[in-house]
Structure formats: structure tokens, C-alpha cells
Prior knowledge:
Elements: H1 2-14, H2 16-36, H3 51-62, E1 72-78, H4 88-102, E2 107-111, E3 125-132, H5 141-156, E4 160-165, H6 177-193, H7 196-224, H8 228-258, H9 263-290, H10 298-329, H11 362-372, H12 374-389, E5 397-398, H13 410-422, E6 430-435, H14 442-454, E7 459-462, E8 466-467, E9 473-480, H15 487-507, E10 510-514, H16 516-550, H17 554-579, H18 584-587, E11 595-596, H19 599-627, H20 632-659, H21 667-699, H22 708-713, H23 724-727, H24 736-742
Parallel strand pairs: 5-11
Antiparallel strand pairs: 1-3, 1-4, 2-3, 6-9, 6-10, 7-9, 8-9
Helix pairs in contact: 1-2, 1-9, 1-10, 1-24, 2-7, 2-10, 4-5, 6-7, 6-20, 7-8, 7-10, 8-9, 8-10, 8-20, 9-10, 9-16, 9-19, 11-20, 11-21, 12-17, 12-21, 14-15, 16-17, 16-19, 17-19, 17-21, 19-20, 19-21, 20-21
Amino acid sequence: MATFLYKLGRLAFRRRHFVALIWVALLTLAGVGAASAPPAGNSSFSIPGTEAQKAFDLLEQRFPGASADGATARVVFKAPTGEKMTDAANKATVQKTVDELSDGSEVASVADPYQGNAVSKDGSVAYASVKYDVSGMELEESTKDALEDAAQQARDAGLTVEIGGDALQAVPETGATEVIGIAVAAVVLIITFGSLVSAGLPLLTALIGVGIGVSSITALASALELGSTTSILAMMIGLAVGIDYALFIVSRYRAELAEGREREEAAGRAVGTAGSAVVFAGLTVVIALVGLAVVNIPMLTKMGVAAAGTVAIAVLIALTMIPALLGYAGRRVKPAGAKSKLFGRSRKGEPKEPDGRPKPNMGTRWASFVVRRPLAVLLLGVIGLGAAAVPATSLELGLPDDGSQPTSTTQRRAYDLLSEGFGPGFNGPLMVVVDAKGSDAPKDAFADVEKQIKDLDGVVAVTPPAPNKGGDTATITVVPDSKPSSVQTEDLVHAIRDAGGDIEARTGAQTLVTGSTAMNIDVSQKLNDALVPYLVLVVGLAFLLLIVVFRSILVPLKAALGFLLSVMAALGAVVAVFQWGWLSGLMGVEETGPVMSMMPIFMVGVVFGLAMDYEVFLVTRMREAFVHGEKPHQAVVTGFRHGARVVTAAAVIMMAVFAGFIGSSESMVKMIGFGLAIAVFFDAFVVRMAIVPAVLALLGKRAWWLPKWLDRALPNVDVEGEGLRTAGERGSGPDEDRELVRA
């Protein structure tokens, strides 16, 4: 591995014009594809195999032309104080609005509130339901404008009017904080390298990689039905790993220059050593993201694969474009410790003590402290993360609805008006689908289901059965007395499903519960059921990969256990902020509530991959020192002397990039941005910087133990670059390009 990457780095350095041309061409091609592609469709929470999805599919089959996946809007009207919606003037205004809404070319139907019993008991609130032929993301702007214009005219007539539903759904915005995150990354890189050129290389390559990845996702969004959130998450992860991977290779390049090597040789060695760590770190991230497919939720699978593709691009760019750009930069990238025009440092190589020994840097001093007091540091780190994880024991899962939107949005105000006029459960009605195809008396079966549901606790209203043209299937709408995301509503869904068994035994009719609320409940259940298999798969595969990298059993085991600590602590922080409301004002969280259902499994996947980044980058330096003859404790200190500064910079950059997405208008993106940022903090600064050296110090030589039979069976990937001690001495000849191909 190291020898192949060494040759690849030298080839890219020497043939830099060709390498740069390839990446610029790919970026241009992806950009043209994105610009000419149709807009992305609406992301779907399709869950194969669940009752809610079966009912949804049955509706499309038995009620053809009903546009089951079409956008919906609820235009909610509230009368002025002292008036009622049944007053003649207000009634005329609503009627005029309904007529205007019905004229749209994409409108499937509009329900008149006075004919559909859509006026509250006190007469203060009414609503008109609008159904469209296409999804919310596919609606033309003219249709959305017509909806807003009709509402505005009703407002001008004196009514309070708000619009709920997904018809006005917009592509989520990340806000200016994303740019701030990149700016923080730039500042950290400048401080780390003391050079604008060296700092600019990781930023440039990361932006090119993300540009290719996100543009490709945009180009394929319509064909692959990728939601708008997919590209944001790919950008989030791609930026973070792209900067970090390039940072490690540039840092190693400068260290090789400081040892007196020529620039082409230094580029080859940097890619051969740090590049090996980049490859395996990238593989762990890709495994974790692609592994999301085991959950069998198409939207989550697509998000994972798209983000994994962006990570793969980041790895390839780090291995090829970074050495090419280093060739262009020439002497403007200085050796580590050389004079910095920016900060005025003027020293050659590492600073020395009077006796000639290297002067300890901060990483060395910290590692020396940890190896002297490993047990105290270990206990403090574990207890601290355990305390941060305590809120996770109160974790409540759900999916966002209009009730989780900011109060400044019309969707949220419509949600509140409907709750005020019709009760909290009105925003999350349940749709019961009765399949009476196997029943001898379908009408009697429909009536039986209606009666059974009315007798259940927690039910406010039940609409009469609405059969299809064939008379073998009917829909019944059930309004709970609790809000959609509550435990009481979930209990009602289970109660209806439990009653369905007795109904089928008596009548032969099958009862299915669907609707957005039931779908959300099924999503949460499926994610919970998949969490343990996913952990076993991803952690198991990565564990095997790390055994190959570190040639040890205990080091990968320690890495996995440390990851579990950091991810639990991060989940605890998410619960404290988004569910309990701690620091919610600072984070811009206007509405607390259940944590997004996919958050735990998504954090497990992404955080595991990122955690292994720091494990690989830091511990491979320790492994390299140990392989080259240093004692275990000294190898830990050496690893920190060379790697702590860079790992710290990488963690701060990754935290800044993720934190930049906290400013998103999309609650899911905001929550993921915060969760990943705090997880990186816990994992990099507590687990990898404190717990890892403490455990390695306690284990000593046992940390690198591997059974002899397993050592013989494992391939030698040479992440430490041991083979480069001889390969680096060979001169480059004219046939090296062909030699690379053979390798």
C-alpha cells in the first residue's frame, strides 16, 4: 500500500498538469450536468414492509387518480375578534378564495370548508383543503404564487390567513453560518501552517471535491429521486473530511521537507505514509455511510451512498491533486518549522534544548503527562463522557412536522390555528384503510371498523367510511385528542392495529393504519429495530479493517469502545438541547420536542467513520514509532509530538464546518450539524487525546499483541511506510509511470 501510494504521489507531483486538468474537467462536467438537470423531487419516507407503506400502496391501487403522493395545502382562516367564520361577509371572502384556488392547472381538488364540516365549533376558525397533482418540490412557482396571492386577498379583506401542508415546501437554506464555518477552517489552517499557500491547498481541494460531489448529486437528483437534504449532508461531510485529509498530507509533506528530502521525494513519502492513513480512514467512513442501507429506508440509503461518494472523491483528490498542487506551489510551501513570513517564526527544523534534544511541544508535554498518570486521566475521561450521556436515557424519537417549524413561518402559524380551533390531534389525523375484498359484506365491515374505532380511548372524531368505486375498499379518518408526536397518539395507532385482528376474524376485512403520523411512527420503529444490526455490521467490518491497519486486537477494540462513549455523550447533548431546551436560544431552536428518529443511527454511522479518522491518523504515528524500535510509552509520546497539533487542527476544522450548518432553516440539518460538531469534540479531545493514550500507556506492549497465526494470515498493508526506507532510496527513472501501473 505505502509503496504504491508513494509512486502515485511522485507521479502526480511530476505530471501535475495532467492531474489538474482531469479534476478541473470533472468539476466542469459535473457543473454542467447540475445546471442542466431538472429540479429534485420531494424526499420520501417510504418504508418497505411496514403497515403504513402497505396501506399507502393499497390506496394508489384501489383509488387510481387520487394523487396520493401529491402536495397538499390547508388554507386556514380565522375571523376577527367578535366575529365568526359563518358571518356572511367572512363566508363570502372564503368562498371567493376557494374559487380562485380551484382555477390552478396543477390543482386536483379544493374542499369548501362550509360543505366539508371544516369550521370549528366556536366558529372562529375554518380551513380549505387543497390537493395538487404533483409533489411539493415539483409544483411550479406560478402555482405557489397563486396560493399565496389568494391567501393575501383574504387577509386584505380582514381575515387572519395562514397556509399549512407541504405545498409551500422550500429547499432548506444553510444560512451564513456555513460560510463562517469555512472561514474558521481557513483561520485554523493559517495558524497551523503559518502560510497562506499551505493553508489554501486543503481548502481548495476540499471545495473542488465537494463541488464535484454535490454537482453530481444535483445532476442525478431527479433520476434517482434524491431529496434536497441529501446534497446538504454530502456537502457537510465532504467539506469536513476533504479539508482534514488534505491537511494531513500537506503536514506530512512539510515534515518530510524538514528532514532534508527533495520536494518530489517528500510528496511521494507524504502520500505513501499519511496517504495510507487517509485511505483507511476514508474506508471506515464509506463503510459506515453505505452500511445505512441495512435499515432499508430508501431515503436514508440514498443519503448515505451520496455522502459516501463525496468522501471517496475527497480521498482521491487528497492522494492525487494535493501532490500536484504541491508541485505547482514549489518553494512557497516551506518545511515544518521553517521561517514564517506571516508570524515571524525563524527557526530551522524542530526547536532544540541546550543539550541538543528536541524541545517538547504541547503535544509532547500532554502525552508525557498522560503516560505518567494514565489511570486518573482514563477515569476522568470516562466519567465525564458518562455524565454527558445521562440525558440520552430520556431520549424520545419522532419526525419533524409543521409543529417543529419556527413560529415565524406560515406553516407553523397554520398548525397553531388548527390546534386552537379543532384540537391538537387535528394536525395529525390517522387514515384507516379497510380492505374488504375478502369480506362477504363489505359495507357491514366498514361500519364495524368505524364503531370499533369510536369506542377506543383518545379518539375525538371519526369520519364515515368513504368507499372506492369498486366498493371493496374504504378510508376512515380518525382525529386523536393528542398532538401527532405524542406518546398517546402512538398508543392509539397501536390500539387500532390491535383491534384490526379481531375485525378481520369477524368480517374478513383487513384494517391498515397510514397517514403521515402513522408513517412517522413506523419509521421510528424500523430505525430502532435496525440500530443493533447496523452497529454489529459497521463496527464489525471496521474492527476487521483496523486489525489489518494496526496489526493488533486490543487497539481496534479500544477504538470501538471509545467511539461508543463519544456517540452516547453526543446523543446526550442533542437531547439536552433539542428535547430539554438547554441553550436552545443560543442554538436557534425555537421549538423543543422529540429528537429526529434517524438521528441515533445516522450519528452512529457518521461519527464512527469520523472517529476512526482520528484513531487512524494519531495511532498510526504511534505504531510507526513502535515499529521503528521505540518503547511503547515513548511511542505514544512520539505519536503526539508529530500528530497532536495536526489532529487538533483537523478536529477544530471539522467542528467549525459542522457547526456552520446549525444555522440551517431545516430542523433536521440543524440537529445533525450540532450533533456531529459536539460528537467530534468529545471524540477528538476526550477519547482520542486523553482516553486513547491513557489506555495505550496502561497496556504497554500488550496493546500491539497479535496472535502469530493471525499475523501470518493478514495482508501486510504497510501503513507505517516501513517499505519506503528502501523504496525511497531508488531514483526515479523514465519507466516509473509503467511501474506504477504494474504496482
